[in-house]
Amino acid sequence: MFDVLLASGVLAGSFYIRRGGTDAQRIQRICRKAGLYVKYDGKEDTMKLLRSKRGSNFIEYVFRIPEGLSSKDFIKKKDVIEDGLNTSKNTVLLYFKKEKSERKEIEISFDKVLKIKVFNKPMPELVPYENSAKGWNVPIGQSRSASIYHDFEKIPHIVVAGTTRYGKSVFLKNAITTLIVNQSGSVTFTLIDLKGGLTFNRYRTCKQVLTVASDTESALEALREIKANMQQVMDHLMQLEAENVQEAGRKDRHFIVVDEAAQIASAGETDREIKKMKVECEQIISEIARIGGALGFRIIYATQYPTADTLPRQVKQNCDAKLCFKLQTDVASQVVLDETGAESLPFIKGRAIYLTDRKHIVQTPFIENKQIEDLIEERGKR
Ligand SMILES: Nc1ncnc2c1ncn2[C@@H]1O[C@H](COP(=O)(O)OP(=O)(O)OP(=O)(O)O)[C@@H](O)[C@H]1O
């Protein structure tokens, strides 16, 4: 009885696979069913396959999209397309063959034509932290094809955004720990966490950490000091007729890490005194973003609520790198990345978009607290 069931199951499976067609055909069918077509003059215009290309771990399908639709319409339906490609129809046969079904993942981009890459293996959901970074690099994570690093000498400031519990704090700890270990004699930090969390607590005793500010007053005091230091470095560079710290041969770099920028934003603050202080904090942070890069000052600016208030224009414009975990809306994604996409990242902790002049989807490294303790134990000791 079981054999009969098995045989009919296998037959059904093969049928489904035949009926399912190639991934290109399935994508076209899913998009049609999801309403991604245009009716005009009594005719139906759907996406057309122009070509396909095989990469080392993916096939890229290139489509012409119907007039009247935009690439954003397709990007919004990314989950629908991806789930459609992974429906049980294809997994029936694999189940009976006792093969493990790998989830197919897709990436959608647009450059005059719609490009949909279908990957044959999902990205890893966990990349354990290891300190393979050199110089002023910090590991950003594993993309589908390479290990990605952020070089703070090339891009001084970075915005880190993402809905709560998706990996911002873990990334901040990864960055701080890596820099303490690799640049123990040259790096200093001002850590600002006004949300009252304990993220930075374990770094409090490190010799590289000048301040851990947990209220507006101490944040302002630390920022005023940084402003005065910037002026001193500026005077020094003037004397040397150097354009930047690299040319002047200065090795010291100062990182200002802001965890939860919304807490330092003046908009919405009702207490007049605190509002005044927050306005000054914002002004100094904007000034560091604008002129601090050449002077050896670096900003890591994290927020879970990206809006025009929490991500001031000067900061955004001068942060040439963005690390964006999953966000709730396409509007929030637009604020951070100037494009949609972060809202349709999968529900995977540590999965992010790293955007500079290039864009990578990465799985950021997971650093455990015990690892941090061990790593900073020696290099961070006062
Ligand atoms: N890179 C990662 N890989 C795998 N799991 C991760 C990764 N980063 C974070 N996590 C998991 O997600 C949890 C929440 O991460 P984290 O504290 O960094 O979130 P957050 O975005 O900073 O949240 P909040 O805004 O509340 O501070 C971690 O405790 C860990 O279990």
UniProtKB/TrEMBL annotation:
InterPro entries: FtsK/SpoIIIE/SftA (IPR050206), FtsK_dom (IPR002543), P-loop_NTPase (IPR027417)
Chief location: membrane
Gene Ontology terms: biological process: cell division
Binding residues for ATP: 162-169
Pfam families in the cross-refs: FtsK_SpoIIIE
Listed GO CC annotations: membrane
Any one GO molecular-function label of the UniProt entry: ATP binding
Keywords: ATP-binding, Cell cycle, Cell division, Nucleotide-binding
Compartments where located: Membrane
Membrane topology: Multi-pass membrane protein
Stretches assigned to the FtsK domain: 145-334
Entry keyword annotation includes Cell cycle: yes
Top-level taxonomic group: Bacteria
Protein's recorded name: Cell division protein FtsK/SpoIIIE
Organism name: Schinkia azotoformans LMG 9581
